[in-house]
Amino acid sequence: MTEAVSDGLAEAEFPVARGCPFAAPAEYGQLREQAPISKVRLGGGGEAWWVSRHPEGRAVLADHRFSSDRRKENFPLPNGDATVRERFRAQPPSLIGMDGAEHTAARRALISEFTVKRLATLRPRIQEIVDHFIDEMLATEGHPVDLVRALSLPVPSMVICEMLGVPYADHDFFQERTAALVRRTADPAIRQRGFEELRAYLGELIDHKIAEPGDDLFSRQIARQQAEGTYEHANMVSLAFLLLLAGHETTANMISLGVVGLLNHPDQLATLKADPDKTPLAVEEMLRYFTIVETATSRVATEDVEIGGVTIKAGEGIVVSGLAADWDPGVFENPDQLDIERGARNHVAFGFGPHQCLGQNLARVELQIVFDTLFRRIPTLRLAVPVDDVPFKTDAGIYGAWELPVTW
Ligand code: HEM
Prior knowledge:
11 strands, alpha+beta, 408 residues, binds protoporphyrin IX containing FE, 15 helices, single chain
C-alpha cells in the first residue's frame, strides 16, 4: 500500500480506544468527514482501509469480493499481536472465517438452531436462568456486588452451555481463557496457552459426545456430519470454539454496558420502566450505541473493488468499523444521544451481509429478558462507584466492563 495515511491522523492507531466510555472516538468523526473510506495505521501493525460511513460499510460487508479468511496475508487483525495470525493458521477456519459456497453450506447447517421460532421456545428457560441469578444477587450479604460476575457473565454462559451441551460447571475455565484471548494487553504466551487449552478441552468434550451423544447442538452437528461423511474433528473443534466464545463473551459485555448506559441516562431508564414493552427497542438502541464488536467486520479484497470513491486493490485489507458506521450522523440523527425510542434496527452491531451474526436472535432474547427482569425486580439498582471509576474494556477486542460494582 503506497497511499499516505489520512491527513492529520498519521499518528493515530486504529481502532482508537474510547476515551469517554460512552462516545465513539473523536478521530472517527474526523475521518468520516474527510472521506467514507481512508487508509489508516492499525494498532496490531500495518495499514488497512478504514470504512467510517454506514452505507459504504454495508456495501463492503455485502460484497462477495471481500474475503473473511483470517489466514490470508494482509487480513487486518487490528487487535492482534504477531501470534494471532499464527493461531488462525493453526486451525481450520470456523464459520466466521469461511467464504462463498463453503460458508453458505456451513451456515445453512446451523441456522435452524438460531431461528426466531426456536429462540421463542427457549424463552421460559432463559427467564428461569435470569431469575435464578437475580435471586442469588438479592440473597448476597454485603454490598457492592460485581454485576459482571453475578449476572452479565453467568446468564449467557449458562444459556450457551445448555444449547451447545457444554457443562456449565466448567465456566471459570472457559471464561478466564476467553478473557485473556480478547485482552489486547495480555501476555502473548498466556493468550497462546489459553487458546491451546480451550481447543484441547473442546476436543475432549467432542470425543465424549461422539461416544455418548446428548440432546444438544454439538451432538446434532456431529451426527449430521457423520451421516454425510463430512465429519472432521479439527473442523468441529473450530466451530465449537467460535460458538462457545461468541455465545457468552459478547452478550455478557452488552448486559454490563446496557446497565451502565441506562443508569447513566435516568430519563431513558424512567421511560423504559414506565413502559417495559419498549425493551426490544431499547435493546436495539443499546446495541447501536455501544457497538461492542467493532472490528470483527474486517475483510481482505480478492480483486480490485471500487467503493466510496477509492479502489481497494486485490490483497488489501479493509476494516468496516461498526462503531463508526453506527455513529454516522447521515443515518442516525444525533448519534451521540442514547435514545431508546429511536428504532435503530438498521445498525451494524451484528454486522451485515452473509456473515451477519448467527446468534443475534439469541442475544436479543437474552438482553430483553435481562433488562426487563433486572429493573423490575431491583428497581433501586445503582452504580456503587462513579461511572468514571468503572474499569471499561478499552484494552480488549470486544468492548465492555471488566467489573461493574452495583448496589441497591
Ligand atoms: C450482543 C451480542 C453479540 C454481538 C454484538 C455480536 C456481533 C457479531 C458480529 C459483528 C458478527 C459479524 C462478524 C463478521 O462480519 O465477520 C458476528 C458473527 C457471528 N456471531 Fe455474533 N454477536 C453477538 C452474540 C452472539 C451469540 C450469542 C452467538 C451465539 C453463538 C454468536 C455467534 C456468532 C457467529 C457464529 C458468527 C459468525 C457468523 C458467520 O460468519 O456466518 N454471536 N457477531
